[in-house]
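Re: duplicated header lines in exported structure tokens

Our pipeline writes sequence and tokens for each protein into one text file. With two proteins the header for the second block appears twice in some exports. Here is an export where it did not happen, for reference. First protein block:
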Amino acid sequence: MKIDEFVKKRPYLFWYVRDLDKLSEEAVVESVLNYGDFDDVKKLISILGIKKTTRIFRKQTHPRRKRVNYYPEIVHYFKHYFHAHA
């Protein structure tokens, strides 16, 4: 499965987007980690790979970023998750 197929099967995760074909991998990772269930997360990781998913997440949650769009509890959980698994 490709990332675009993944997105089209889960439009409820991307309610804020009119054209699902224009989503970046970064936007997909952010939405899935924030709003998806763990099955969505596992499927995303199987598509992008654990290293790429981790790299995107860490870039998006870097302390020097002025704005982080993740919920604080999501950041906390996935920092530990990716530290243990990536």
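Second protein block, exported in the same file:
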Amino acid sequence: MLRQISWNTFFSTVGVVVLLYYASLVAILYRKQLLAWVRKRLATTILVMVTISRTEAQTADGNNGINQANTLIRSYFQTGTQLMYAIGALVGLVGAIRVFVLWNSGHREEMNRAAAAWFGSCVFLVVVALIIQSFFGL
């Protein structure tokens, strides 16, 4: 099953997930500084966004693009599902190692919390794949 996923796709997806994780950490830890920075540059940001949206607007019928995107998403679903399972397996292995280390060091309460969190994240990946499958009717 996993042979169908190319290594480039796998590593780029893992890189995006790691990037989103660290970006969310920075957003959580430096929330006040980010909000102050955004408030200072809000007018410039809105101006740039309006300019970009006007320059990239298309006058052609958008139904072709939507149908093509729908076809592409449906064709990549099996690969994406397998990729989610692979990421879930990696998360599960890392979580098992973390729980094992906490168990051996005698931190029982932290071990229980870590085990529940890692198990929940693995179950979440599987459930998300099933929900997306039912949403797209595949």
